[in-house]
Amino acid sequence: MTDPRVDEIRGNLSAVEERIAAACAAADRNRDDVTLIAVTKTFPPDDVRRLAGLRVADIGENRDQEAARKVAALADLDVRWHFVGQLQTNKCRSVATYAYAVHSVDRTQLVDALAHAAAQDGRTLNVFVQVSLDGDPARGGVDPAEVSPLADRVATSAGLELMGVMAVAPVGGDAARSFDRLSDVAARVRADHPAATAISAGMSGDLEAALGAGATHV
Ligand SMILES: *Cc1c(COP(=O)(O)O)cnc(C)c1O
Questions:
Q1: Nearest CA to ligand 1 atom 13
Q2: Residue ranges around ligand 1 (CB below 6 Å)
Q3: What is the DSSP secondary structure assignment for residue 173, as one 8-state letter?
Q4: Ligand 1, atom 2, residue with closest C-alpha
Q5: What is the pLDDT of residues 82-94, one digit of tens each?
């Protein structure tokens, strides 16, 4: 049986893979050092199933309600769920039950709520500290000057593993410059926490700029 939607997703996936390969080549980087996260928000669970069938193992969602529904409907799939959206403390209990990683940790209360929830479930959550590159609180992220204490708190919380930093490029800004700033913040975090080598950045529109600045998760 042929599923035209699988063909469509396969085509999109190979176009993205080509862009990643070209950006890695341009930056003299190894493709194997980059994790592609397919963000499936607003797309149906069957699309996640199709992606898994195409060997995409990392799936991103930005709302707990939608993510939790998909996770429940797709319990048989062997995929890692990445939470990339703004998070409220009252959702941490739920997110901690299914997330492999949370990319949007930008305040102490979230660190503590996630750590508490992870401990309750006996799980380990991988955490990215989200950095604000434009000072716009509406888009989430902590000011670069505040990253260090937050990263320290993640690193010392049982049940949480500090992966590194995450940011979204400011709207209408110069993405390459923004991601260079993120790269500087990442280097400072790495100086204190050598294992926290991950940089989560880059969406469909700006993944080349992100990979050029060292993004490990796009
Ligand atoms: C939606 C979203 C993405 C994916 O954006 P695309 O343009 O679909 O690639 C990535 N990161 C975050 C934080 C998002 O909310």
A1: 84
A2: 39, 41, 62, 84-85, 168, 203-205
A3: S
A4: 39
A5: 999 999 999 999 9
